[in-house]
Amino acid sequence: MEILPFLVTQCLNALSQAALLFFLGCGLTLIFGIMRIVNFAHGAFFMLGAYVGYSTVHWTGNFWLALIVAPILVGGFGAAFELGILRQLYGRDGHAFLMVTFGLTLIMGEAIRLIWGVEALQVKPPEGLSDIVFILDEPFPVYRLFLVGAGIVVALTIWQFLERTRLGLLIRATSQNAEMVHALGTDVRLVRSAVFGIGCGLAGIGGVMAAPLVTASLGMAPNAVIYVISIKYFRFLSAQYKKIKPTFIFHYTIKPNIYGSMAARLLGIKSIAIVSGAGYAFLRKNVLNFITRKLYKIAANSCKEMWFVNYEDQHLFIEARIVKPGRTKVLPGEGINTDTFKRDVPYPACNENFVFLLSGRLLWDKGVGVYADAAKIIKKKYFNAKFELLGFLDAENPSAINKDYIEKWQQEGVINYLGNTDNVKKFLSGINCFVLPSYYREGVPRALLEAASMEIPLIATDSVGCREVVETGYNGFLCAVKDSVDLAEKMERMINMDRSSLMQMGCNGRKKVMNQFHEDLVLYFYKDLLKTEFN
User: Fold this and answer.
1) Which of 63, 162, 375, 516 has the highest CB neighbour number within 10 Å of its CB?
2) What is the CATH class of 230-330?
3) What tens digit of pLDDT does each residue of 179-202 get?
4) What pTM, to 2 d.p., does this model score?
């Protein structure tokens, strides 16, 4: 076998396959870049494009017409779905988008099964593209060369569209500052609908292009999006590790834990995966949960150990047989610098102007809505009680609290929004109680540790992570999850406590942080491991 012809043809094969992934991936990236939505149904739109292409070719005999019809129909369907369904979800928990688009995948799969059946359908390429050419005396399909060329043409077209058209300008501007675009008179909702439609249309083109190679089949959609996202992130981390050449890696959060551990293993680099909170994927048993567990199991076999920040997550992973007990450790949280977070001014007076504060990312799953509802209840009886809200308001993130809600709560006199800050300590100094009614599966919330270290009584939900920090009656109260009435009852108990009792709660909280969550306790684990590894 001649090496050069073989290498050339294999490179061209890889490029043709990359072109198909480009059609799928660029639409997915465009949607995520503007809307911050991982469109789990993107693979289904890719599959739908293949079936629409098959029908167009079957009825008209014109493959080129299929390349026009499929993206228009698929893109139009995508835009209609965004307009009728996704638009109703903006401002809600970001995981709602994942579940809805996953549900759409199932619906589209069943619809295609009913319309086209279960058999794989072959799409014939047009005359001239079904031939074979010889490259360095090696036979090679013309159609694969066409895919490479088409990928280049579409990439250049998208680039020119984004750079030289008004809609392209609006799309780029929206990705940078959606609030400013809206303030200048453009309906950002229409831009989002257009982006979603264009992204789905690109997936539709990819489906038509793929059909002559892999046939139109129900197996096209499953794992398509996961494959694209996983490969891109895995390659990014691999490239970074090759460039930096680390000796040892500590990974944090789910994606680095999974793909970073795999990349490090392939490059011969030892690593630790630190699970700082199991997160939404472990809240209920569904397909997302199944996939996440399988990926985490691969990661567990790729890293040296898995570390957790609470015993409940450790137990969950061991019970699910993701990791063996002997390869786990539980850290005392992520550590807090108690010298930085210490009270420099006296605890504020406890009068009718009792001050509550919630700080953190302004997401629904952090309990901001529950906090506002509880504030309304309290203000009916304690009109002068103050409810402050501190944190970043991300207008482009569909899982974030919509700015309209914040403005409405302020106009009603329920919430005082303080904006965002990189110095939370100055806001903590003047409050009587810190509140975190989160219903996300937390690790150990840093916001609670910072407040406790500042000798501030706490109220948090009786859920994983929060109960690690708050002991009812000792340094605060635990309330029921998603229960504004119970939260309001705990707030009223705080208001009716005398100043000395509240100060004692605060002292107890700092003592707990010093004994269990001080950063020196956490650093010990890291230092001990590195000493063992490097003597």
Assistant:
1) 375
2) alpha beta
3) 787 787 888 888 888 889 999 999
4) 0.58
